[in-house]
Design goal:
With 299 residues, the protein is α+β, with helices and mostly antiparallel strands. The chain is 20% helix and 34% strand. The protein has one domain: 2,3-Dihydroxybiphenyl 1,2-Dioxygenase, domain 1. Strands 9-6-7-8-5-10-13-12-11 form a nine-stranded mixed β-sheet. This is Glyoxalase/bleomycin resistance protein/dioxygenase. InterPro entries: Glyas_Bleomycin-R_OHBP_Dase (IPR029068), Glyas_Fos-R_dOase_dom (IPR004360), VOC_core (IPR037523).
């Protein structure tokens, strides 16, 4: 599912075809957490051993779970994950997810964001999860400055349930074809450092901003990444939780452009950013110790 615009991007911005790829979590209980993402979110188990599980849809990996019992719990002041957001392709699919959550888990704060409708919950180890569907792009409200406007309003839960057949709908175990990771939302220690890495360096465009929050995206999407300082995190990510996530760009030239921009950020600012060259792209460690893999499509 690709809802990104096809327009060209400026040389210092990511191409419009940019998307989020896989996300990875460090956890303790691999059995329980795998069961949650399989039975509640609806992902299929694509690969599994004693310390690692890969889950996805239609053979496409979306989530990697890495068992790491020796790593400490995430501290109250640690930066890290706010939520991983799984995007489903229709309101009916969101309704099916709602039925699974109501039957098998706990729903927390269903919301209408004007551009999307969303369900929120936590996995068994406290990692935030969003399941959402986008409204058609032509329906997204636009602010005076040209950015996509979002809000948080109560979700029409009955309408979402009705889209899947309402009370008569049976359980649908699997998320449908077209499900992907639409965005990742982080808790950071500094929004200015976040912008230095993800906007000036990686090349996302700033979208809607609010009190202590930034949304950034490529290709006119409402947001591929969110970052907030709502809980006053003050120390880098160190414990369990997010291990890494992917930013997937159209080609190797886009990866090289990211690397050049990050070199400039490292040279011109005091933001601590590490870049490692990998066979399939580059791995970036941001100022909060969060690892981001930038790779070309089909790498």
């Amino acid at each position: 599912m690709n809802t990104d615009a096809s327009r060209d991007a400026p040389d210092d911005r990511l191409p419009a075809g940019t998307r989020i790829g896989r996300a990875a979590l460090r956890i303790v209980d691999l059995d329980e957490t795998t069961a949650f993402y399989r039975d509640v979110v609806g992902l299929g188990v694509l690969d599994r051993d004693g310390d690692r599980a890969v889950l996805g849809v239609d053979g496409t990996p979306l989530l990697v779970l890495e068992r790491d019992p020796d790593r400490p719990d995430r501290g109250r002041t640690d930066a890290g994950l706010f939520h991983t957001a799984f995007r489903v392709p229709s309101r009916a699919a969101l309704g099916e997810a709602l039925v699974r959550v109501r039957d098998r888990w706990r729903l927390d704060g269903p919301s209408d964001h004007l551009v999307s409708e969303a369900l929120y919950l936590d996995d068994p180890e406290g990692n935030g999860v969003e399941i959402y569907r986008d409204r058609p792009r032509e329906e997204w409200p636009v602010a005076d400055d040209g950015t996509v406007r979002m809000a948080t309003e109560p979700l029409d839960v009955q309408g979402v349930a009705a889209a899947a057949g309402g009370a008569s709908a049976g359980l649908v175990d699997d998320a449908p074809s077209g499900t992907d990771v639409g965005h990742v939302h982080l808790e950071v220690t500094s929004l200015s450092a976040f912008e230095a890495v993800y906007v000036d360096g990686i090349g996302f465009e700033v979208g809607m901003t609010g009190p202590n929050v930034r949304f950034v995206a490529a290709g006119g999407y409402h947001h591929h990444l969110g970052a907030n300082t709502w809980r006053g995190r003050t120390t880098p990510a160190a414990g369990r939780g997010i291990a890494w996530f992917e930013v997937v760009v159209p080609d190797a030239a886009a990866v090289e452009a990211v690397r050049d921009r990050l070199d400039a950020v490292a040279a011109d600012t005091d933001v601590d950013v590490g870049v490692e060259v990998r066979e399939d792209g580059i791995a970036i460690t941001d100022d909060d110790g969060i690892e981001v893999h930038v790779r070309p499509e089909f790498a």
